[in-house]
Design a protein that fits this description.
single chain; 333 residues; mainly alpha; ABC transporter involved in vitamin B12 uptake, BtuC; 14 helices; membrane
């Protein structure tokens, strides 16, 4: 733990917020089309309809805001899942929630021809909730009850199954494949503010709720018997945490597709900085997750310019070595 005093944690958190704001500004300025900081300022103060001003306001700004919200949502969901399951490798991606939400979106588009953003979000929520329920039920089977290893295995099985089903649906409909292939790789490119505004209330509400659960989560992590002995309603707390995970992961997948590794690695960075106090882990995870995804999206524009690498590929490149390190080290919550 780097920060031990509350005052130092507040200072670091404020600094990270300023870093996030700087990253968002950089995301609006830099890209294939050359623009300057002055042009960005003019686009918002004296918009003249030029190509550069249109790109800044209608393409890059929504993209930066989407990356911020999605990164924060996935990182907070990962922190909640790791606390809920007591598994340092838990995340919406590893537990199959992203794959389940993705399958329901593709299935809804395939069978029901869903197109509206609101229906897209609800399809994603339904898939995330359905997958979470199956994983939890499968991980609870047997004499030992719910264990981290069984949850991980059940999540991996669900992720493989839903990914296969998604590919199966797409293989019989090439037109549908062309429409959702960019989404399946995980990307914030081309997302509109309207789509962001559709999912933002759910993600924002879940973030606010989980921030207020920090002290209760600290007791739960100490042990369910301890939490019950102190008068905590652990069943209700777990339900609220699971609901927040579904809202966060479901809304993130609905707008950006299945982006991996943020939910795994960011909570570990947060705990490295502030320790195991979830009153701090959750907000630090949200800010760090947003920073990582915004910066990864900026990097994705330059790898194979003039084309772009999907940001989901960038996060996988960044996250895989960290994931292997965490798995070998056996990180504790």
């Amino acid at each position: 733990m780097i920060c031990k005093k509350a005052s130092s944690k507040w200072i670091v958190l404020v600094c990270l917020i300023f870093i996030l704001l700087a990253a968002v500004c950089a995301s609006v300025v830099y890209g294939y089309t050359g623009t300057s900081w002055r042009q960005v300022y003019q686009a918002f103060t004296s918009f003249n309809g030029t190509n550069e001003h249109v790109i800044i306001k209608d393409v890059r700004l929504p993209r930066a805001l989407v990356a911020t919200v999605v990164g924060a949502s996935l990182a907070a969901a990962g922190a909640l899942m790791q606390a809920l399951t007591k598994n340092p490798l838990a995340s919406p991606g590893i537990f199959g929630i992203n794959a389940g939400a993705g399958f329901f979106i593709v299935a809804g588009s395939f069978f029901l021809h869903i197109q509206s953003p609101q229906a897209l979000v609800w399809s994603s929520f339904l898939g995330a909730a359905f997958t979470a329920a199956i994983v939890y039920a499968a991980g609870s089977l047997g004499r030992e009850g719910l264990t981290p290893i069984k949850l991980t295995l059940a999540g991996a099985a669900m992720a493989a199954m839903f990914s296969s089903l998604t590919q199966g649906l797409l293989s019989v409909n090439e037109l549908e494949l062309a429409q959702v292939l960019f989404w399946l790789t995980g990307s914030v490119q081309g997302r509109s503010l309207d789509l962001l505004m559709t999912m933002f209330p759910y993600a924002a509400a879940a973030l606010v709720i989980c921030f207020f659960l920090g002290q209760k989560i600290n007791l739960l992590v100490m042990g369910e018997d301890v939490a019950k002995g102190l008068g905590q309603k652990t069943g209700l707390l777990k339900f609220v945490m699971a609901l927040c995970v579904v809202m966060l992961a479901g809304s993130a997948v609905a707008i950006a597709g299945p982006i991996s590794f943020i939910g795994i690695i960011i909570p570990h960075f947060a705990r490295f900085v502030v320790g195991n106090d979830y009153r701090w882990v959750l907000p630090f995870s949200a800010v760090l997750g947003a920073i990582l995804l915004v910066c990864a999206d900026i990097g994705a524009r330059y790898i194979i310019m003039p084309q772009e690498v999907p940001v989901g590929v960038m996060t996988a490149i960044i996250g895989m070595p960290v994931f292997v390190y965490i798995a070998r080290r056996g990180a504790k919550l």
